[in-house]
Design a protein that fits this description.
Number of helices: 5
CATH superfamily: Dehydroquinase, class II
CATH architecture: 3-Layer(aba) Sandwich
Strand content: 15-25%
Oligomer: single chain
CATH class: Alpha Beta
Structural class: alpha/beta
Number of domains: 1
Strand order of the largest sheet: 2-1-3-4-5
Bound molecules: 1,3,4-trihydroxy-5-OXO-cyclohexanecarboxylic acid
Largest sheet: 5 strands, parallel
Length: 156
């Protein structure tokens, strides 16, 4: 544990989120993932947080990134995309690591199809932000900064 080590958040994005801006803009908005990353970087700097921002269309990549985060980050912000509703393995990976998890969805999944109403990730998340659009990511970073304030102890 070191007082000088900056707090770091892993911001993980699952399948199809690389298409933000083009993908169903009526549902997900017109903000691209690169713009969300830029906004997160700005807000993180204000919160004295460093961020490691990633996207993958592959479940195994996301699971590896979660495992590798242990000892390097203080918490995880994740938009698991469609894997929220299908992946027990992703849920198990998040449960396996000693890190707070904030789940983010751009759309309000509860106003959408029934199959989106269940997220396997929610049960292992400290908080869930759904329906706040791109702003959900920066809300999540603010919450994570609050949770980990003075909290180097979560760096396992
Ligand atoms: C999403 C909601 C999911 O149901 C969907 O499969 C996504 C995006 C969201 O950000 O609103 O890919 O996670």
């Amino acid at each position: 544990m070191s007082a000088t080590r900056a707090h770091t958040a892993l911001v993980l994005n699952g399948p199809n989120l690389n298409l933000l801006g083009l993908r169903e803009p009526d549902v997900y908005g017109s903000t691209t993932l690169a713009e969300i990353e830029a906004e997160c970087t700005m807000v993180a700097a204000r919160l004295s947080l460093e961020i490691d921002f990633r996207q993958s269309n592959h479940e195994g990549f996301l699971i590896d990134a979660i495992h590798e985060a242990v000892g390097h980050v203080n918490g995880i912000v994740i938009n698991p995309g469609g894997l929220s509703h299908t992946s027990i393995a992703l849920r198990d990976a998040l449960a396996a690591v000693p890190l707070p998890v904030i789940e983010v969805h751009l759309s309000n999944v509860h106003q959408r199809e029934d199959f989106r109403h269940t997220s396997y990730v929610s049960a292992v998340a400290s908080a869930v932000i759904t329906g706040a659009g791109a702003h959900g990511y920066t809300l999540a970073l603010e919450h994570l900064a609050m949770l980990t304030d003075g909290g180097d102890e979560v760096l396992a």
